[in-house]
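Quick one, tokens below:
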């Protein structure tokens, strides 16, 4: 888990715990002598439990669920990494992710097509797009990658796109 998650999460958790303690203690009204409503003991127990559940458990579940997406290895997590696929992933991140959307690497490009929406993509189709410059509408430079680099990106994209 990234250190930034802790940097941004810890202050909010501490603030939430402080709010719970303040609320359960009676807040300002108790210090001023204002009579507080007499709630049953169950409400005093259920409210802190509800705060803990919504304030700690829900964000924790969201962070844990996101863990699979960190690093973009979701669809390849169960398989042993192959050197070509790893190189293809890195090349895609550095050369293609700024334009194309691909969930496997958390790429959110806006000018190129969303590769996840294309469905199943063959290696040959990806290689043709790389060498021709996409579909030929001059949105993607032709020959952006070549040789083994193009093969590696084609292998990676054909493996993860649309999955």
């Amino acid at each position: 888990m990234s250190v930034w998650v802790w940097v941004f999460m810890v202050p909010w958790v501490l603030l939430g715990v402080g709010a719970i303690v303040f609320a359960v203690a009676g807040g300002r009204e108790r210090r001023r002598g204002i009579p507080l409503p007499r709630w049953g003991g169950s409400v005093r127990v259920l409210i802190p439990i509800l705060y803990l559940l919504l304030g700690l458990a829900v964000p924790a579940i969201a962070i844990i669920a996101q863990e699979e997406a960190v690093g973009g290895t979701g669809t390849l997590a169960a398989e042993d990494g192959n050197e070509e696929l790893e190189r293809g992933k890195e090349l895609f991140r550095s050369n293609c992710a700024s334009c194309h959307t691909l969930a496997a690497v958390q790429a959110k490009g806006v000018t190129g097509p969303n590769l996840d929406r294309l469905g199943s993509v063959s290696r040959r189709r990806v290689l043709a797009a790389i060498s021709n410059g996409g579909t030929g509408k001059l949105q993607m430079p032709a020959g952006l990658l070549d040789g083994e680099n193009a093969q590696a990106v084609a292998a990676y994209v054909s493996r993860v796109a649309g999955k």
